[in-house]
Design brief:
The chain is of the alpha+beta class and about 290 residues long. It has one domain. The protein is built from ten helices and six strands, in the order αβαββααααββαβααα. Strands 1-3-2-5 form a four-stranded antiparallel β-sheet. A two-stranded parallel sheet has the order 4-6. A hairpin with a 2-residue loop joins strand 2 and strand 3.
């Protein structure tokens, strides 16, 4: 082997080794981040029945889709973690230098898992721990966000304006100028880079690459019955609502988008959403 080829081989090995080291550091941070759980109230399991029964052929087709979707999630999330590990490690360093507190925090969210018995399908609500890069100051309270989210779900405009003030129609469905958010946190939220650790949730099986946004327990506490239909799909790293609207639409519209996805989910739709995601992030429409 000549010296040029040897240098190229060594360079590739260094990049691969660096990615593995960065990945190990991220895993360590995620384990440590469990101490930052918000201890949201536990949610009892909710059986979510489909509105219509599937034909036999359709039933097996859906089962094949779920199997293919899980394998796709494993391969893509593992590959993405390997290649993005250096970037994620750099973000961790930036978060630590910007403000006091852990680089990664964990929070209890509500997802779902599918159940099948006697040829019938149902979804069951399930709590899990989600990972994100920290975008807020250490020790902040979630009381304001809880009040805002519950008012958003109930359509309580007066409470929304009391918390948010008078803002543009596009911005009224998210908290603007949130004093809890750090300088780096604003950038991470605008670019959605704070969501990258959720690739580990996808790899674990708590989430999928594509699906509805994972709900907070205090959101589900005030859900109307038809809102629960958005839980009839595994929560996603990205999804139909994320690429079509994000926080620029009201809660009922978000539920409609998520429910439509749950009822029409297929592999081609998932691929379409994944392709649309980078463009949605670049546009920044509805970003927090």
């Amino acid at each position: 082997m000549n010296s040029g080829k040897m240098m190229k081989t060594l360079g590739k090995a260094a990049v691969f080794g660096g990615s593995l080291i960065a990945g190990a550091a991220l895993m360590t941070a995620l384990v440590a981040g469990n101490a930052q759980r918000l201890n949201a109230p536990a949610l009892g399991l909710v059986a979510l029945q489909p509105r219509r029964s599937r034909k036999l052929a359709d039933k097996y087709s859906y089962r094949a889709y779920l199997i293919a979707k899980r394998w796709f999630d494993i391969v893509v999330s593992a590959t993405a973690i390997l290649f993005l590990a250096p970037l994620m490690l750099a973000i961790m360093v930036a978060v630590k230098l910007d403000s006091e507190g852990p680089a990664v925090y964990s929070q209890e969210r509500i997802g779902s898992r599918i159940r099948g018995k006697g040829g019938k399908r149902s979804w069951e609500a399930k709590a899990f721990t989600i990972y994100k890069f920290r975008t807020m100051k250490k020790g902040n309270s979630s009381s304001q966000h809880k009040a805002f989210v519950q008012a958003l779900i109930k359509g309580d405009t007066a409470t929304l304006e009391a918390i948010n003030g008078k803002v543009s129609s596009e911005d009224k469905y998210k908290i603007k100028n949130d004093s809890r958010v750090t300088r780096i946190g604003k950038i991470l939220r605008k670019t959605s880079l704070d969501e990258l650790p959720q690739l580990f949730n996808v790899l674990k099986g708590d989430m999928s690459l594509v699906g509805p946004r994972p709900a907070l327990a205090y959101e589900v506490d005030v859900y109307a019955p038809h809102h629960l239909r958005r839980l009839e799909a595994k929560p996603g790293f990205t999804g139909w609502w994320q690429v079509k609207a994000r926080s620029s639409v009201d809660f009922e519209t978000m539920v409609q988008l998520d429910t439509w996805y749950a009822e029409n989910a297929n592999l081609w739709l998932d691929l379409k959403i994944l392709v649309m995601t980078p463009l949605s992030v670049i546009k920044g429409k509805g970003a927090a």
